[in-house]
Amino acid sequence: MAATKTAESETPTFTVLAPATGAVVGEYPLMDADAVAEVAATARDARRGWADLGFDGRARVLGRFRRRLVDHQDLMVETMIAETGKTHEDAASDLLLVVGWLHHWARTAADLLADQPISTSSPFLVGRRNFIAYRPRGVVGVIGPWNVPLSLTVGDAIPALMAGNTVIIKPSEVTPASAVLAQKLFLESGGPEGVLNVVTGDGATTGTALVDNVDYVQFTGSVRTGKKIAKRCIDRMIGYSLELGGKDAMIVLADANLDRAANAAVQYGFFNTGQICMSAERVYVERSVHDEFVAKVVGKVKQLRQGAPAGPGSVDVTVMIHPPQRDIVEAHVRDAVRKGATVLTGGTSTTGPGHYYSPTVLTNVTHEMKCMTEETFGPTLPIMAVGSVEEAIELANDSPYGLTASVFTSDLARGEAVARRLEAGTVTVNDMMVHLSAGELPMGGHKSSGTGVRNGAEGIRKFCTQTVIQVPRMAPSNEPHWFPYTKTTTRILSGLSKVLYGRPDVSLNPLESRPVTAMKHWFDRLTADRNDR
Ligand code: NAD
Q1: Which residues of 68-86 are buried (b: 16+ CB within 10 A; e: fewer)?
Q2: CB of 228 closer than 6 angstroms to any ligand 1 atom
Q3: What digits encode the pLDDT tens for the residues 488-501?
Q4: Shortest CA distance to 47 belongs to which of 176, 209, 216, 202?
Q5: Is the CB of 402 under 6 A from ligand 1?
Q6: Could you report the per-residue pLDDT of 143-163, keeping only the tens digit for each?
Q7: What is the pLDDT confidence band of residue 107, given thresholds at 50, 70 and 90?
Q8: CA distance 424 to 420
Q9: Residues taking part in catalysis
Q10: What is the pTM (predicted TM-score) of this model?
């Protein structure tokens, strides 16, 4: 990122170039800590008004924003294409995700964040009403990566907004244009000032300043940056959710529909030119169908059309969005070939304009190679033959990552059984990636792939503080376990342990099995004892 400073008093800026054409996409302020703090102050001031709108009011504002995004989808898609060089179809699916999530959260937020009654078997809470109250945390920071610049910035802001927070987005310095345009459309649709904000700049200055000024951080990006952000959040004692990298395994069993499996491998290995956290990063195929599967995949990959996007339906695979990522792809393929892998198609780079890497299929790969163990994040598909389903599961789990995984088989019960044993946040049978379109389904990573989830009930509750509120139905002047302590009190407290939890079968706990009788018994005993004192 080349920064420019035109005069001493002016904010420095950085220029974003289109990865496919080299044309200038735009010039953006390189915001320093003071500039970020200023935006944060505006966002803090806007909290009260936004929270006071209530769920219905906020849903109405976000409904108008959704319609404005749809009305301007050509502009939005063109902007995404300009800054990423992705295909029309990949850009359109990013927009579709966001408007789908806007629809989802507007409908569901009020129910998910309604007071949540909790019943308890604690003898000390008999006669009390307990519930969890959710309240917005305040100002939420959303930091996003360069590969999906709308849904992983604006999209992740939606549940935070519906929960009543104001939001500051820091898009990647590689692809800030989509988030900046979306914020403009939000304001044009009548969104209040200060509610949805965007700060632009790099990670070290702007990103760090954002973490320092918000009440919660929603981060999507690399493991390396995720760890830095987590440490800083811990220093500030604020919450965070990390959606990080993946090395997603696809398992193809011998009984799979090989045409579907091969189509899925090509679709999800090369979607967004392989620059997607949930792409098929490595494939394990039962040996008896390996050659047939590989032949089908290679045939289809050779038909993929690669080039700069030139209108809908023009190409399938495009350019590397962030040129340094191509160095990683090249290094992984070189490392694999040096260690004995075979390149069946692809394996070449071309430059100018744009940094391209051809769709590549590798076989004879092993876990000694980076392409099977480290995130490649590019258009490569390494395929490995395995002797059994057990070996496939073991290899799939032999990874520091655990974002998503998939298994292809005609036996759905077997597919489900395999899915239960794979260490990943989402496992799909005979499918991949589409789960992200469902706001109802939590999506998060195990192991180094992150902590927390986007979507699902937790995907909005994380943007709230949770307060347990306990209200007694009656409040006598004194309670049986309060002062003064007597031997009888001690005897009864010890007796409770025996009566409630001392039996081999804890389901015989009288408070759970016969609550009314048990409650009366407990009250009667304690009241009688205290009257004796
Ligand atoms: P990155 O970690 O380099 O950058 C992500 C964002 O963090 C950028 O906006 C960057 O400016 C910012 N940043 C960098 N240093 C920072 C700091 N110290 N403090 C605050 N912010 C900082 O990631 P990237 O290269 O942009 O994205 C690619 C990675 O994202 C891949 O690993 C990919 O798997 C992952 N990813 C994960 C998901 C998911 O949902 N799990 C989705 C998409 C991408």
Answers
A1: bbeebeeebbebbbbbbbb
A2: yes
A3: 999 989 998 888 88
A4: 216
A5: no
A6: 999 999 999 999 999 999 999
A7: very high
A8: 9
A9: 243, 277
A10: 0.94
